[in-house]
Design a protein that fits this description.
alpha+beta, 6 helices, 13 strands, tt1808, chain A, 291 residues
Length: 291
């Protein structure tokens, strides 16, 4: 089974069995926790595509790990009995919780907050992303890593920013030499990739692709192989045709050679017969002269 060595090092108690739940209500919770806040999935189509691609990429990355939740744009409640105390991270990953379908995420039921959160900042959100939300993730929820990406690259101090929890506050993660920012919880680097951004595997030294992109690459590779196979088959057919033509020409040449040989043998036989007749005539003349 594939595991995440970074997660194992940071969260050894969370691997396998869920951690102890910090809340033990004495009475049944009858609070209504809505599944939607009525807000759109994303501010723009660009943000929507980034959100979907990120979720699909990370879900594929950790698909063989049974105790991980990869989700996003889901209402997350962090205080028992308080339906107003919620937020909806664009993308989040939690190790040590069951992989299952969820409609909402209640931190007291899951037993822990997300380990990784990624927010796509925009004109209307970047101030909150850098202010109140950042404080909430660090001081109230205790999210280990908090990343921000400015898709339009004009609102945040830097297009890609990462923070790691130290004590009860966040410390900025120093970018690598090439500008990527490493996430210990994911074991991946996040980096700018052309006009967009992506997840980079520093062990395999490659960018992760979405399942659709990977499938498209496989189709393209298959089509390329099919084209090469067709070209090879065409070359083989042409070579076979040439070989057959050469063989036919060789047979014709052999037949012509046989015919010329037969003519030569026949001519030789005629010459031998003429020579024999000449000898006979010469012997007759010699006999006549002697007599």
């Amino acid at each position: 089974m594939q595991t995440n060595r970074h997660a194992e090092a940071i969260y050894p108690a969370y691997r396998g069995a869920p951690p102890p739940r910090p809340y033990h209500p004495a009475t049944e919770d009858t609070t209504d926790y809505p599944e939607s806040d009525g807000q759109p999935m994303a501010e723009t189509e660009l943000h929507r595509d980034l959100l979907i691609d990120s979720l699909l990429t990370l879900d594929a990355r950790f698909q063989h790990i049974p105790d991980v939740c990869v989700s996003g744009n889901m209402l997350m409640y962090y205080t028992l009995g308080e339906s107003r105390k919620s937020l909806a991270p664009d993308v989040f990953v939690t190790f040590g919780v069951a992989r299952k379908q969820r409609r909402i995420y209640k931190i007291w039921e899951e037993g822990k907050p997300p380990d990784f959160v990624l927010e796509f900042s925009s004109k209307s959100t970047f101030e909150n992303d850098l202010g109140a939300k950042k404080t909430l993730y660090a001081e109230v929820l205790g999210v280990r890593e908090y990343f921000l990406y400015d898709a339009e690259r004009k609102y945040l101090p830097a297009p890609l920013m990462g923070f790691r929890l130290v004590g009860s506050g966040y410390v900025a993660i120093r970018p690598e030499a090439d500008g990527k920012v490493f996430s210990e919880t994911l074991g991946l680097s996040l980096g700018l990739r052309g006009d967009s951004f992506g997840f980079y595997d520093p062990v395999a030294l490659r960018w992760l692709e979405t399942p659709m992109d990977a499938a498209a690459e496989r189709v393209e590779a298959f089509e390329t192989l099919a084209e090469r196979a067709e070209a090879a088959a065409a070359r083989a057919t042409l070579a076979q045709q040439r070989a057959e033509a050469d063989a036919e020409q060789a047979r014709a040449d052999a037949e012509q050679a046989d015919a010329r040989a037969d003519e030569a043998f026949e001519e030789l036989a005629q010459l031998k017969e003429a020579y024999r007749q000449l000898q006979i005539e010469r012997d007759r003349q010699k006999s006549a002269e002697e007599s």
